[in-house]
């Protein structure tokens, strides 16, 4: 092991680390590549030797030898909102456990942008993809299928996943919330959606429409928000709703962020929530229970979706999970003060 000026090691090899730790080079390699297979004491000894020698593991050389990069890619519609934060954490926690690095990219809710992102990432040879959503361009689907790289789609449902799926029925979940509002006595229920091509948003809108139709409440009333991730968009829609005659008695929103913006806007206008108009959201974000009044919402297992998707992907990469695996996640209807429930009431759906 050569020494640089100042005593820093130069050209440190895995064999150098093994000598300092008193183990074999194969054991050092296992600690670096498959730490979960090494007992804690041995792992600590090797890690101490790595720190002492200043060894830097050459991931490029390792990936060339193993045909694996040690990297998984997470594709999100946006990183500008808290909506997907818990799912990111779920993927990240699993990746860390398996000594895999996670990289993220966003598509800005654009299938065309998603195609560009995935094509660029494939050139970097990730071991697999977790993708939020199941709606892709034909070119994107072809790229992924021909690459042979494992893919797990999530946050939506489809009978034809590219590879594997951790699904959520946005249609069923929003229909269930609409039915819950009808059961509470609301009859003029408006919905805040979006004009974008985001399939998850479209399926939630369809679920609302189905709930209204089955209740025999006439034509649905859908108002589109410009920005799905902004409370300001919720405020703008609330002003439009307040000006309607007759005014809706309940406003069901695409997500909790829009619902919070609308709720606060109604209060600033002097409208009582839920006395003058009820408000409900979707997502079960942490802040929903801390608003005053607390926000009724569809609580979805955001962290668990990310966790399960990553576990499924790791299994596909390792060859321990078969292609075509599907896991459908459930949801909970949580009725709180914003729709007139003095005590939180929950309905579980599998």
From TrEMBL:
User: What Gene3D superfamilies does the database record attribute to this sequence?
Assistant: 3.40.50.2300, lambda repressor-like DNA-binding domains (1.10.260.40)
Q: Which Pfam families match?
A: LacI, Peripla_BP_3
Record GO terms (molecular function): DNA binding
Keywords for this entry? DNA-binding, Transcription, Transcription regulation
Which residue range or ranges hold the HTH lacI-type domain? Answer: 12-66
Which interval of the chain is the signal sequence? none
Transcription regulation keyword on record: yes
Q: Does the keyword Transcription apply?
A: yes
SMART domains associated with the record: HTH_LACI
The organism's place on the tree of life at top rank: Bacteria
What's this protein's name? LacI family DNA-binding transcriptional regulator
